[in-house]
Amino acid sequence: MCLAIPGKIRSIESQYDGLVRMAKVQFGGITKEASLEMVPAAKEGDYVLVHVGVAISIVDEEEAQKTFEYLKEIGEIDELIEHTQI
Amino acid sequence: MQYLSEYRDADVVGQYLDEIRRTVTRPWTIMEVCGGQTHSLVKNGILQLLPEQVRMVHGPGCPVCVTPLYQIDKAVHLAMEHGAILCSYGDMLRVPGSKMSLLEAKAAGADVRILYSPLEAVKIAQENPSKEVVFFAVGFETTAPANALSVIHAQRAGVKNYSILTSHVLVPPAIEAVMNDEDSHIQGFLAAGHVCAIMGIDEYYPLVEKYNIPVVVTGFEPVDLVQGILMVVRQLEKGEHRLENQYSRVVRPEGNPEAQKVIAKVFEIEDREWRGIGNIPMSGYELRTEFGAYDANKKFSVNIEKVSESSECIAGQVLKGIKKPFECPQFGKKCRPQSPLGAPMVSSEGACAAYYHFSQAMEEV
Ligand code: SF4
C or N terminus of chain A, fewer CB within 10 Å? Predict the structure, then answer.
């Protein structure tokens, strides 16, 4: 039940007389409503992580890339260490 | 990027697994705290693919599993005897209480509804002014902002017939409870990424220092999990213990300040009973007194007796990672998801249920 998945903000509207920002968020083929109250900086086109109808984090594109670079990086660092030891 | 398919890429998972194999020289025991991660590790077959030296044990992080039986009985009672519209997340409704589950209460005529979000429950309350609407608010820190927000929405909209029945638990005290057990052999932790998305990572520094253990904040997709495991193994092999963040695309070091504000406004920290483990001091959220009008416990006087759990269930040891589900004599025999004897078999995110579903799937292959 702790599932939280990333989706793309398609549109934003305000409810409760402008007190609450709600977004239409697209997850693959389906679109669901999510509250943006926890992510005031979120804007259309951003990817947000949504959990039980509330966006809890904006996904950071630059940081996302690191997962794929990590292996290469540690490889290079290890190599560096090996070379320094010689 | 779609931030989903890339993290399920079998090639990338394979590269990480290769690197884990190259790195590991000795046996290590690592716990993932969160039930969502347990589920993902089992479902994606990662446990089978890890080298033998890396032993993953599964923590108490399934909120549905650790919700005490009497709380479920209380929810059933509110639905059956008080005529409340009882709403919660799907998994929660399926968990058997001492007499019946909420879904069984529904079959018996009670108004029980599965919701995606607690915010929908406030709308239901608005549409049904003559009825009481109760949301069974379980969860870890991840879910607390949404549950708190529902109370704030109700207050803002002047909705008086809405309340929540809380059974909220916190991760750091659970890690302490696990580490303080003298039978615990855990050498490193994967911390739950979505919990940290809310709370940030600062709460884990003291745990790293106190127990000299590596803690890596980790995501939920297969690539996240194998990277998190590699980061823990690298630290262990080097004799280090640090806090690292594998899930930096979602988890900022400070967490989500807006969410923390909402939690602090609505909830305060209290002692809490965990099903299968017992009382853990300062390990859960309770509604603040100012929000008493939204507290189902205060609104309805319900006296539910505590029922004791089956003595054949070794849930406490499973939830603390001391024993694996297979090591329980009742696993798959008397205890199955349809008729669970204890906490870790009740939800698909519980360790026993995850193993059970997986072993069934293996037999069918
Ligand atoms: S298999 Fe069933 S009885 Fe055994 S520990 Fe798990 S929940 Fe308890």
Answer: C
